[in-house]
Amino acid sequence: MIRWPARRRRAGIVAILACGALAAGCDTVGYYYQSIGGHLGVMASARPIDDAIATANGANDARLAQRLELARRIRDYASRELKLPDNGSYRRYANLHRPYVVWSVFATPELSMDLRKWCFPIVGCISYRGYYDQNDAELYARGLRGDGFETYVAGIPAYSTLGYFDDPLLNTFVYQPEGELARLIFHELAHQVVYVRNDTAFNESFATAVEAAGVERWLAQEGSADARASYRIYDGRRRQFRAMLLDTRDKLVKLYQSRQDDAAKRQGKARIFDELRAEYGALKAEWGGYTGYDRWFDQPLTNAHLAAVATYQQWVPAFTALLAQSGGDWDRFYAEARRIGDLAPPERDAALRKLAPPATEVTPLTAGQAGGAAPKP
Length: 377
Hints:
This is Putative aminopeptidase. GO terms for molecular function: aminopeptidase activity. By secondary structure, the chain is mainly α. The protein is built from 13 helices and eight strands. The radius of gyration is 21 Å and the shape is globular. The two termini are 32 Å apart.
């Protein structure tokens, strides 16, 4: 793949988006306008990490200075040990003065797990729409609901521009625990290594496998005992939560594929969501009242909640097996992942299935997605 110099890539992507906006309807023009303006606003807020650390120290903000120092160590480790791109990404810092960088809107029909897709230049067809203003996201979701869709609006702490821009560290994620910070940086950088247009499941599963193996190595080699212990607890809870969601998702898919009439399906759906809430309550009790996933339940539960989660997990076992077959050699692993990604979709899925059974066997999702835009429970 041809790699343009960074300045030409940045100018090119903005020009393509602008031309796409001119050729589109009013709704799309408005969407491109907020996307371009929002992203350029993020980039304009960023400054070199050394300057940000100096400013934090000057303001006696030791916590921020320490987090930026840690992020720099993680970033250096990513390129040195995991062979992730050695570029300007995550070597600058921006304080956006808001809790999330974007809010993503996911939508499904009432009795289906098929995510609605939107198609754009460069990234291809993706299964969400991202907004830099929460009110804009909520307004768009309201319109989709008026059209009969179920929606999920998710606050997103980070996203990847696939190497077209040097993505900065953000206040939206830099304060996360050490293991989580490493996980996020590794995941977003992985999208710059391998990205397949129009295949969300491939892209997110690949990046998720990289993050999981990467953070394990980081903590073993660089992390403190406290960081390792904290991550084991957090990761154990995440795995339990994720398994619960995938199990619920598969129950709903089987229900929707059954021969029951729509009224019976609606009743079954309500029952399954009630069971999910009860199961989460039991998990919270098992965790001693931990509330870290409460925000996932803040909105009324919909198919879109569960469909969004499934995109991250489908081929993770296959990529984990591929890394093991590569003997832990990251360059070999990336090269083989690229080769599989270049296959036609049926051959691609067959190659991944040969490596390991998918994490979810029901109705694979194959909508393209730019890295890091979907929620990651």
